[in-house]
Amino acid sequence: MPQSKIAYLALGSNLGDKPNHLQKALFALQEKVGDIRRISPVYQSSAWGFEADDFLNCCLEIETPCMPQELLAHIVAIETSLGRVRVQEEGYEARIIDIDILYYENETVVSENLVIPHPEIPFRKFVLRPLADIAPQYYHPILNKDSRNLLQECKDKGSLEKTSYRLFKDQQALFSHLGFIAFEGNIGAGKTTLAQKFAEDFNAKLVLERFADNPFLPKFYEDQSRYAFPLEMSFLADRYQQFTDDTSQYDLFKNFMVSDYDIYKSLIFAQITLQEEEFRLYRKLFNLMYKEVKKPKIYVYLYQTTARLLENIKNRGRAYEQNIEASYLDKINQGYFDFIKSYPQQNSLVIDVSEMDFVRSEHDYNTILNTIQEFATSKSF
């Protein structure tokens, strides 16, 4: 087995969803090339050598078993898979993704398709600035100057600004950084199933809503007007106590938290089920409680059509749910959408899973993961 070597790479993008192009490139490099050990901050820079939209740039340190030409082949394949199309004309061009090998240990390589160290390093501030962040004392093997000295001497006058975007080597690291993700949805949307699978796959502490023992729930489905207020008050008290306890106690052996509910659902359901005077009283108490609870970094709402919800409810076979009417589910959906519109600071992400089967289909499950990943990356958490 070949001995691993340290290489430094520079990445850039100035087309489309630039932060996500960079993030996907890092995931691919981690999967196919080696272990990413350091990632620089992301910088925004003016196009170098031609007129085009600004770039997002970063550098990384990677430990790889690949020899230089093999490393280059992987890089070209990754660029192609992400949609880069190379033109034949000479000169610079806008690109979805650009990955350059800056250094490969202290080695020098000169061939028709690869030169290491990259010959443009001393002249590019958008390379030297992020490189100095992760390898300030790394010496250029030919110029015998480290990254900080090269940056100080660089004559590049192009604009360069540090951004708030964060990049990670894999999804595990990205989701862990978020700290707390809540999955929400209508009755029968699959939020508990997805939260369980997500927590298992990414080593998250699982916070599940406990409602099976609520004595008012079966009675509510039989006589909503009579049992709505005691049901909603009971749910609110239970959710507040449980949610506060579970989200305030971190598990040292878990990377982050994921829940199958957010306490705000109490207000959404109460507004649907309670009379006007009851709801005003309920809301006063709720507002006091809501100020104290931990908010998720991302609030994922799993949308399903009412017909699909009714099918799911029928299939899971809970006796007290079988008489739920379509109009009630429609009101719940509308209540969630009203909440999402009213609280933009909640960082809400709506995913339509009406045509998905994320339990049986790995493709559908990965689609959900990638959607959350892209949302998180674009928000620069």
Question: Topology, pairings included?
Answer:
Blueprint: E1 5-13, H1 18-32, E2 35-39, E3 43-45, E4 55-64, H2 68-81, E5 98-104, E6 109-110, E7 115-116, H3 125-134, H4 147-153, E8 160-162, H5 171-178, E9 180-185, H6 191-202, E10 204-207, H7 216-222, H8 224-248, E11 256-259, H9 265-273, H10 276-290, E12 298-303, H11 306-316, H12 326-342, E13 348-352, H13 362-379
Parallel strand pairs: 9-11, 9-12, 10-11, 12-13
Antiparallel strand pairs: 1-4, 1-5, 2-4, 3-4, 3-8, 6-7
Helix pairs in contact: 1-2, 3-4, 7-8, 8-9, 8-10, 9-10, 9-12
Would you mind describing this structure in some detail?
The chain is an alpha/beta fold and 381 residues long. The protein folds into 2 domains: 5-162, Alpha-Beta Plaits (2-Layer Sandwich); 171-379, P-loop containing nucleotide triphosphate hydrolases (Rossmann fold, 3-Layer(aba) Sandwich). The chain contains 13 helices and 13 strands. The chain has helices at residues 18-32, 68-81, 125-134, 147-153, 171-178, 191-202, 216-222, 224-248, 265-273, 276-290, 306-316, 326-342, 362-379; strands at 5-13, 35-39, 43-45, 55-64, 98-104, 109-110, 115-116, 160-162, 180-185, 204-207, 256-259, 298-303, 348-352. The strands form 3 sheets. Strands 1, 2, 3, 4, 5 and 8 form a 6-stranded antiparallel sheet that branches. Helix 9 (265-273) packs across helix 12 (326-342).
